[in-house]
Specification:
By secondary structure, this protein is α+β, with helices and mostly antiparallel strands. About 40% of the residues lie in helices and about 20% in strands.
């Protein structure tokens, strides 16, 4: 009986250098959009693209969208606008960890995790993804989250309005970005 050799099927995973090169070579569309109700998804994609390009410029792999982190981020942006505040902790004391847990990102108490959060708001041209990400990059605390090598997942929440007490009648936007990684 003849023998047959079957070559193993390999799952080809691109090398990190190829991934980084691809991120850097891909243009980010819509970075100058001032958020409006009809273009929030485009604004989120532009923001994530800019964040991932900054990570790639610094040798870090891109973040992947996570629906649960996105739900937590979107709810927080909406809450800040609705209740007219701008803070990581809500007026009733809800923390970023509680938001992320409530959205189901941390599956149980047996796993390890690391989370972080960036917030921003702006009016007029300062509400664009380009302006928001530039402000985060210029801030030591915010860029630390963006470049944290342990983070693998992210979610963005954008509302086409800023907290009223801050915007003083001007159109604008409020951004929340959740970062995370589950270990174990």
């Amino acid at each position: 009986m003849p023998t047959r050799t079957v070559a193993p099927v390999s799952s080809v995973t691109p090398e990190p250098a190829a991934i980084l090169a691809s991120v850097l070579a891909t243009p980010c569309p819509d970075t100058e959009l001032t958020p409006q109700a009809g273009d929030i998804e485009q604004v989120k994609q532009a923001t994530l693209c800019l964040v991932n390009q900054e990570r790639a410029r610094n040798g870090e792999l891109p973040l992947q969208l996570d629906n649960k982190l996105e739900a937590a981020a979107q709810a927080h942006s909406e809450d800040m606008v609705a209740r007219d505040y701008f803070a990581h902790v809500s007026p009733d004391g809800e923390t970023p960890l509680q938001r992320v847990q409530g959205a189901g990102y941390i599956p149980n108490e047996e796993v390890g995790y690391t989370i972080g959060e960036n917030l921003a708001w702006g009016t007029s041209y300062l509400a664009t993804p380009q302006a928001i990400v530039a402000a985060w990059i210029a801030s030591p605390e915010h860029i630390a989250n963006i470049l944290d090598a342990s983070y693998r997942d992210t979610g963005l929440g954008v509302v086409a309005a800023a907290p009223a007490s801050l915007a003083q009648g001007q159109s604008g936007a409020t951004y929340s970005q959740e970062f995370g990684v589950i270990v174990g």
